[in-house]
Amino acid sequence: IYILGIESSCDDTASAVLHNGKILSNVVATQEVHQKYGGVVPELASRAHQQNIVPVIHEALSRAGVSKEELSAVAFTRGPGLMGSLLVGTSFAKSLSLGLGIPLLDVNHMQAHILAHFIDEENYQKPNFPFLALTISGGHTQIVKVSDYFKMEVIGETLDDAVGEAFDKSAKILGLPYPGGPLVDKKAQAGNPKAFPFPKPKVDGLNFSFSGLKTSILYFIQKQLKENPKFIEENLEDICASIQHTIIGILMDKLKKAVKQTGIKEIAIAGGVSANSGIRKTLHEAQAKYGWKTYIPKFEYTTDNAAMIAIAGHYKFISEDFANMGVTAKARIKM
Ligand code: ATP
Ligand code: FE
After folding, report:
1. Does residue 78 sit in helix, strand or coil?
2. How far is CA 53 from the centre of its chain?
3. Is 168 annotated in some ligand binding site?
4. To 10 degrees, what angle do helices 231-262 and 277-290 make?
5. CA separation, residue 156 to residues 73, 130, 280 (Å)
6. ipTM, 2 decimals?
7. Is 11 in the pocket of ligand 1 (CB under 6 A)?
8. Does ligand 1 lie within 6 Å of residue 185's CB atom?
């Protein structure tokens, strides 16, 4: 089975070729235009997808050494995401499916982040059902009970900002360029995580809240700058380490609660923020500390990519769960 995956939900145009669960190519064109605006500009994202999509798909096929006539099906991200961005991938996938006479597979982007764990990779184990997925990305923060490939139940989620936003907005307060998440991670590695304690939000059950943290960081920094205008540059590593430590603490508290509530000790992390070195380390240590079995994705399958779309498509193909030509992009879509 050869699956072509297409991802265009936000600001990365991506395409991948998957053969029986193994990745043959995984191409991502990251859009640079948004950097100077400090965030993704939807209209510009849509235009950049239109420019990138043909060369990116060509590149994915050529790196895989697969011709389009060999493809078994084409999988694309239907949502959630930015409408103008999703439309580019959706329309292209439909045309390709029609032109080649092969099945079309619509994929939920958030399910795909989780299903990335089922890509065949040496030295990587696949989670066993049922498992809990902590999905942490630019737009979502969820704890998902995964009973089967497409049987997923959100048992906790953020009431306001996503954890990726918490990283990016904190970085912005510190004057770091967008997207700041990876930079906070880098600086944090050399800092003291206990230098500046930030309060954790009080939210019932398995839900999260990150908007209060952002506000307390802002007030703290403003106060410090009044006393010492060089506070940020003199303490950047400690500030980043402290922010990251607080975020990890919030995530771990809820995960522990979810394990207790469900009795499930198989835990997978997914989404762009699962690239974070502190989170990866903490999850790894949780195996010995709490007796969990944790699954940490290969780095290239954390932030947006089409390999995850292709593997989700692969399992839909096997169960013959095809889309028809009437399928439309959806900016908001449930698990
Ligand atoms: P969604 O998947 O919810 O639609 P998205 O696709 O925009 O959102 P992803 O690409 O999955 O999000 O993740 C991007 C987010 O991950 C950004 O907020 C980015 O800052 C964050 N991120 C990436 N690497 C790291 C890192 N090492 N540490 C912290 N955050 C990171
Ligand atoms: Fe994503």
Report:
1. strand
2. 20
3. yes
4. 40
5. 34, 16, 20
6. 0.98
7. no
8. yes
Q: CB within 8 A of 149, min separation 6: which ones?
A: 115, 118, 312, 315
Binding site membership of 305 for ligand 1 (Cβ less than 6 Å): no
pLDDT tens, residue by residue, 39-59? 899 999 999 999 999 999 999
Please report how the helices 181-188 and 277-290 are oriented relative to each other, as an axis angle in degrees rounded to 10: 60
Residue with tokens 């640079």: 32
Q: Which amino acid is at 141?
A: T
pLDDT grade for 37, boundaries at 50, 70 and 90 = confident
265: Cβ–Cβ under 8 A, 6 or more apart, which residues? Answer: 259, 290, 291, 292, 293
Compute the distance between CA of residue 169 and CA of residue 187 in angstroms, rounded to an integer: 15
Question: Could you tell me the distance, in angstroms and rounded to a whole number, from the CA of residue 182 to the centre of ligand 1?
Answer: 9
Q: Residue 294: what residue type?
A: T
- In whole angstroms, what is the distance from residue 313 CA to residue 206 CA? 30
Tokens of 189: 């590695």
